[in-house]
Amino acid sequence: ATDISSAALAVARRNARQLELEERVRFCCGDLLEPLQPAGQFQLIACNPPYVRRDDLEGLEAQVRGMDPRETAPL
């Protein structure tokens, strides 16, 4: 599991521990696939990148705005 946010990785680690999956998941802090270089073999790649442009965030409803992390919002 990779994320640019160490706080998001902390939540993911906690969730994995609660689900008794922490031995099956490797957590790496960095941008998308960068921490996984050199590329190896993977059983699963799932991606949920930020999808709201930073300039558009303020015009959205608070519930929607709060779901897209600002530190990773596209320009």
Could you please describe the fold and organization of this structure?
With 75 residues, this protein is mostly helical. The protein has two helices and two strands. The protein is globular and about 40 Å long.
Mean pLDDT: 81
Biggest sheet strand line-up: 1-2
Shape: globular
Biggest sheet character: 2 strands, parallel
Query: Could you name the ranges where pLDDT drops below 50 across 5 or more consecutive residues?
Result: none
Compute the number of strand runs. Answer: 2
Share of helix among residues? 10-25%
Question: Which key features would you list for this structure?
Answer:
globular, 75 residues, mainly alpha
Secondary structure layout plus pairing:
Blueprint: E1 2-3, H1 6-18, E2 28-29, H2 62-65
Parallel strand pairs: 1-2
Give a concise summary.
The chain has 75 residues and is mostly helical. The chain is built from two helices and two strands, in the order E-H-E-H. The longest helix is centred in the first third of the chain and has 13 residues, at 6-18.
